[in-house]
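Hey, can you fold this one?
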Amino acid sequence: MKAFPALLSALSLASSAMAADYSRVIFADDFSGEGFGKAWGHYKSSSIVKDGVLMGITAPTSDHSAVDNIRLTGERDLQVTVKFRFLSDKAKSFNVWFDDKNYKGSHAGHICQATISPTGVQVADAKTGGFNLAGGLYDRKKANQLTEEEKKLLASKMKRFPTKVSLNDWHTLVVQTEGDEIRVSIDGQAVASFKSEGIAHDTKSLVSLTTNPIDVHYDDFSLNGVAKP
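Sure. Predicted structure:
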């Protein structure tokens, strides 16, 4: 995994200065059992658990990427840790989503996300950005009817960081939300950090892995919250 040294240095300093204590384990799965455990939910997913890993699979006939998720009591600040590997160039990307299905102001209750691909990491505020239902913004985006001002607004709600992630190798991903910030590290190196008001949503209650479309394997998934006094 490679990224620009100056950018990594700046992100590492920011992350180390601000990182909360995410030592409280909410859920963990090493996929050593037979199939998915009862805690897992799914949406249009053909993913399977086999040979000790979660194999992310979107069916060729599906109109939506495979979603495999965990529900929790709503919390603001969360940490997702998961090992992953891209098996081939058919593995375009995967997303770590933080949602609140009780929130009706964004499509599907989407709050924020990190998208990981072999060439970069993108982080986004979905609540006030591209999935915002207020004023018909999401519908106009889908219909390709955004004004120039709206396009600029949505562009300000996400940020992409060039990063090279090797194929076939296992990597460790950590995604954290803290207040209005989302941070991403891969193999212990900070690769992305972004602040936006929607990220500070207080009741993130669903975390999911979304596979776009196939050839992504996952292992040692854990979801942590901030330690309580």
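The helical segments are 5-18, 137-142, 148-155. Let me know if you want another pass with a different chain boundary.
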